[in-house]
Design goal:
Layout: E1 4-12, H1 17-33, E2 37-42, E3 51-58, H2 61-73, H3 75-87, E4 88-96
Antiparallel strand pairs: 1-3, 1-4, 2-3
Protein name: NIPSNAP domain-containing protein
Domain NIPSNAP: 8-100
C-alpha cells in the first residue's frame, strides 16, 4: 500500500484571496482529522496573482477515497464545498507518489 499525494492547483479570484486563505486553513484541519497529512496551501506572492496550490497525502488511494466519501456526508465539508464558486474559478487535481531516497529499498 503506497501513499498518495494530491497536488491541487487553484485558479482563485484574486479579490477573494483573504477568504480563500481562511478556506484553506479550514481544509488543513479537516484533511488531518480525516486521516491525511496536509502539507499546506501556497498562495500567490510574486508573479501570477490568481494561482494557488495545496498538497496533502493519504496513506493509500483507498484512504483518500474513504475521505472523499466521508467528506460528502460531513456538514462542515459541505459548507466549504458551497463556498467554492465564490472563491475559485477552477481547480485541477494531480495524484503523485513519492520516490524513496536512495537508502530505502
Amino acid at each position: 500500500m503506497a501513499p498518495v499525494t494530491c497536488f491541487l492547483t487553484y485558479e482563485v479570484k484574486p479579490e477573494r484571496l483573504a477568504e480563500f486563505e481562511a478556506y484553506g486553513r479550514k481544509w488543513i484541519t479537516l484533511i488531518n482529522a480525516f486521516g491525511g497529512q496536509h502539507h499546506g496551501y501556497f498562495l500567490p506572492s510574486e508573479g501570477a496573482s490568481d494561482l494557488a496550490y495545496a498538497l496533502f497525502t493519504f496513506p493509500s488511494l483507498a484512504d483518500y477515497e474513504r475521505y472523499r466519501e466521508q467528506s460528502m456526508a460531513d456538514p462542515v465539508c459541505q459548507d466549504l464545498f458551497r463556498e467554492v464558486p465564490t472563491l475559485i474559478h477552477r481547480n485541477d487535481r494531480t495524484f503523485l507518489r513519492p520516490v524513496p531516497n536512495g537508502l530505502e529499498t
